[in-house]
Amino acid sequence: xxxxxxxxxxxxxxxxxxxxxxxxDEIVVTGSRIKKKDFTSNAPVATVxxxxxxxxxxxxxxxxxxxxxxxxxGLDRTSNNPGNGSATVNLRGLGSNRTLVLxxxxxxxxxxxxxxxxxxxxxxxxxxxxxxxxxxxSSVYGADAVAGVVNxxxxxxxxxxxxxxxxxxxEQGDAGLFNASVTMGANLDGGRGNxxxxxxxxxxxxxxxxxxxxxxxxxxxxGNGGLIPGGSSGVPGTRSFNGYTFPDGTxxxxxxxxxxxxxxxxxxxxxxxxxxxxxxxxxxxPQERIASTALARYEINEHAEVYGRxxxxxNEVDSELAPTPIFQSSTFSLDGNPFLPAATQRIISAGAGDxxxxxxxxxxxxxxxxxxxxxxEVGNRQSVDTNQSLQAVFGIRGExxxxxxxxxxxxxxxxxxxSQQQNGxxxxxRYDAGLLLADADGDGNVDLDANGNATCxxxxxxxxxxxxxxxxxxxxxxxxxxxxxxxxxANARATFDQTVVQANFSGDLGGFEVFNAGSIGxxxxxxxxxxxxxxSPSQDIAASTIAGFNGSPAVNGKYDVYSAYGELSVPLVRDxxxxxSITLDLAxxxxxxxxxxxxxxYKIGGDWAVNDQIxxxxxxxxxxRAPNIGELFSPQGxxxxxxxxxxxxxxxxxxxxxxxxxxxGVPASVVGSPNINAISGQVRTxxxxxxxxxxxxxxxxxxxxxxxxxxVSGLTLSVDxxxxxxxxxxxxxxxxxxxxxxxxxxxxxxxxxSAFCNAITRRGxxxxxxxxxxxxxxxxxxxxxxxxxxxxxxxxxxxxxNDFGALRFTYLGTFVEENDFVAFDGADPIECAGNFxxxxxxxxxxYRHRLTTxxxxxxxxxxxxxxxxxxxxxxxxxxxxxxxxIDTTHxxxxxxTFDVSDNLAFTFGINNIFDESPPVxxxxxxxxxxxxxxxxxxGRTYFLNAKTRx
Length: 950
Known about the structure:
Layout (H helix, E strand, L loop, with lengths): L44 E5 L1 H5 L5 H5 L33 E5 L2 E2 L19 E8 L3 H4 L6 E7 L5 E11 L6 E12 L4 E12 L2 E2 L10 E3 L5 E3 L9 E7 L5 E6 L5 E3 L17 E3 L2 E15 L2 E18 L3 E9 L8 H11 L13 E9 L6 E19 L6 E18 L2 E2 H6 L46 H7 L3 E24 L5 E19 L1 H4 L3 E2 L7 E22 L2 E15 L3 E13 L4 E12 L3 H5 L3 E3 L15 H9 L21 E3 L8 E12 L7 E18 L4 H10 L8 H4 L1 E3 L5 E5 L2 E21 H5 L5 E17 L7 E2 L3 E3 L3 E4 L2 E10 L3 E10 L2 E3 L10 E2 L2 E11 L4 E8 L29 E9 L1
Parallel strand pairs: 2-5, 31-35, 39-43
Antiparallel strand pairs: 1-4, 2-3, 4-5, 6-7, 6-47, 7-8, 8-16, 9-15, 10-11, 12-13, 12-19, 13-14, 16-17, 17-20, 18-19, 20-21, 21-23, 22-25, 23-24, 24-26, 26-27, 27-28, 28-29, 29-32, 30-31, 32-33, 33-36, 34-35, 36-37, 37-38, 37-41, 39-40, 41-42, 42-45, 43-44, 45-46, 46-47
């Protein structure tokens, strides 16, 4: 085996990390700061070795991390809507804000008010391994480690020059991704020091939903077990949600033909009037990233080694949506409107007129309608997100003058600067201004000049283009001047600044032993963290006067925390019958937050090695998560999550629900009508922070066993049970939009006058205008399950008699027993284990696994990975969803690395070898008619990497 192939596999997932030799080196495993020889973790720690990124063609770290059974995929390269250009990791499905991301054991700099780290800032080329600890680690690392820790460990002893080139594309020749990196390093002064520098570049091409058959049309459930073309009620010809009586006696909402005539809006069947917004949405977001990292260390003497890390990255990710749909109630000129035929004016006058007919011609002067208009003339919505991250870490470490004790004192300063440029937004006030035309003489008729042209009655300003009367009545009728008048420039800028100062000390307590079982290991330390976030949007975004992207007010806030912690590893038994060793681990942390005050967490763990073959381990942790800046300080802003209106359920709601619907503002005539349903399945939701929030509190428990049987040489097997419970969890009031709607109308806790119904505001036609939610400490989250991991390696010569190389197998499996969310005290739990949908979001299968097989020969190393995503069910079985379950899905990825020489290697791979198509579902999808962060949407993909090293 050559240097380029050695150690290139996923090692010891969920099996204890152990020292690699019995020498004098001491190691630290993620989850503890105690240095020990032959360290074995009493918590499940999964390790991803660096070369696995090459073997899977991963350019971004989340691509590989999202395939681990311990994770529920977060945001990635497919996250167009929802999405913000970032990439995240989500352990146990408890939320990216409950997963702590570290680099070399120190906090990475977040980018958002939620305190979430963008994994795009992590350079793959410098990673030596990634350690994933699941379960609480607040006692050691502080808040945010409720679900666990992902620790990216860089190689700080790199020597030589290494260059990597890679490219991948799908079988259809699209979705290309190019990456290149150069790493150089040198040892100093006989190995006392080292300096290394890495520079990397990645460029990812866009892929549109229209480029794949399964996603080129937005699909609806037809209510009869099938899927039909669907889309949005915001259509290029404009939809009026008022009820009109047409000449043939039909009563329906209306839409306009290009000549301004009006006809009923068709909502049923495969041939309908909904707008297909899908084709122009990105299925893969384009990205360009440049990153550089410098590492340095130098040992002055045994008492002092100075070290530093400086990293900078700039990452640009674009997202693209269909042209802006504007939904709002507008008053417009009717009598004499040059864009509307007289027949249309009469129909609208009867259905939406203002009741004022100044000239007595039978047509009201103006009308007010709730319109849905797709502003295709304005152009597609585009968001360009640029995230620049900078972090500098400086420290000094070494042996203290107390024998057996080490210290590590460091300071980290980091900043992320995120800028966003939005195109395709329109100003709501100017939209209304273009519809209300001048009537200077007051006769109720629109004033027209000699050429038959009208003028705007008023102009709110704010545009470099003068107001021009706007013709929204029919597709393609908005002039370029009107489109220019509507367009509004929108941008935002956000900064996250983080300062971390910490001092850590570790060693042993010398002569202090319990039952002569060995010296007691100890660690203690102090930490100061200051986080500050500032979000400065342009005026239209801040005031939510735009249609297109979500409005969001300015946010500014900061907090700091002082902490002290301590750890003990106490050997209790050594070299006894049925007890080769028994060790008790204890840890505690005291913290003082400037926002929530004092808190404490602790850990009790144990390790019982029966003999060389059987070892039991367990941990009980308390953990906290302090409310982040967004949860504390955000003013009210808007969002558009999925939701289903019980008052719009086809087939009419039952009598009790109908009564509540009518009492809360839904006209009796439209209860049970799909015409008032949420637009495109999305409900406008107003959310905001709460400065009175307190810390979330969690209890995490793990217990397991590790087996290394001598009768099966090369086998290691572990089984671990986990149980995590979060109380006083911070959540939007009522557990989110859909839960508020459901509780208001169908639950005993709801009803007229309840806080749930009071949070819902409806328009005059009965449709939902908004649901208003604020963050509160009201929820409870629990998750339970079993992790199984196995590693087996064998030499073929030992088994078959002939030397065909070495075989290695790594299995990781997770059985999710429970993943429940209780929105408020007394609420029924939302059960997400084995489910997906509007409440649970991304599918969380009850069983999933990853099995990797590696065959190593002298110059070849071949890998086959099998990823299984188990069956899941729709989380709302009462909904009319055609796809109520998604079958078990299997993905197979393969690669071969060939060492041309000791200095040059090539890796060729195929992901999704059998071209498995994603499950296609209707209204209960995330985006693109599926869940693209969980299921492969690209098809068979080829990649080729080349690496040279000197």
